[in-house]
Amino acid sequence: MDAPAEGYRVLRVLGRQALGIEPSVKVSARPPLEFHGNSAGGWKIQRDSLDAGSVVVDVGIGEDASFSESIIRKYGCVVNAFDPTPRAVQYVRRLNNERLRLFELGLGARAGRAQFFLPNNEAHVSGSFTKAAHLGRHRIEVEMATLTQIFELLRCDRIDLLKLDIEGTEYEVIASEDFERHASAIGQLCVEFHHRWEGRRKESTERAVRRLRDLDFACAWYSRSTNEEFLFVNTSWAASKRDASSPRTPSAD
Fold first, then answer.
1. Distances, alpha carbon 110 to alpha carbons 130, 148, 204, in Å
2. Can you name the residues that pair with 229 across neighbouring β-strands?
3. Which residues contact 73 (CB under 8 A, 6 or more apart)?
4. H-helix or E-strand containing 132?
5. Other C-beta atoms within 10 Å of 149: how many?
6. 57 — alpha (psi -120 to 50), left (phi > 0) or beta?
7. Domain locations in the chain?
8. Which of 25, 32, 172, 243 is the residue whose CA sits 20 to 30 A from 131?
9. pTM for the full model?
10. What is the DSSP letter of 248?
11. d(Cα 190, Cα 159) in Å, to the nearest integer?
12. What is the mean pLDDT of the chain?
């Protein structure tokens, strides 16, 4: 994105915040960061925070794998992508990246079959389990998984990095008991909030942020030009890593 366009978008966000129609989320953690992805689908994460054995989950990969492929290139880890959208499934298969594993499942607060609303504009890819003005002319049934089932499917006891770009469903997922149950096992959370959608307002995002704070997540970054992409870091993980790296004082015995 060129500098004038970036500056205009930043000013537009600031104006909406001044009018009280856009959430203002305080950055309360400031670890060193690095950017992955592109200007249309990118997030910052903690610098040098992953390795080849890290568990990375990208929910809602759509037709832009730049974030996941950037992480794969730097760290050599496998990224587990979840997306039931037909076009997203075809897109990821065409990439033929052996380190990008696709699961044709959606993430929700409850498991089972669910109505998935496709975009009215067939040139667009992102559907949702939440109906909106730009969605719903066409719908399909897809299989939903809970976070518990994702842990079981991946046979892991932690997720080092979880990305959620799930078109409005992030609010129900974050509010769920299932998310609370596993929050301490998630190191970093990249999320796109959809407070500008029909039926959503800034209060939806503010509630989600309070919920994350209660679960020991701190906001470490957000996109100033969109105010939609956010990074939250698990402060309990950060504290445990500091303790592990601190030199131990020799015993007096």
1. 14, 10, 19
2. 192
3. none
4. none
5. 14
6. beta
7. 61-104
8. 25
9. 0.88
10. P
11. 12
12. 87
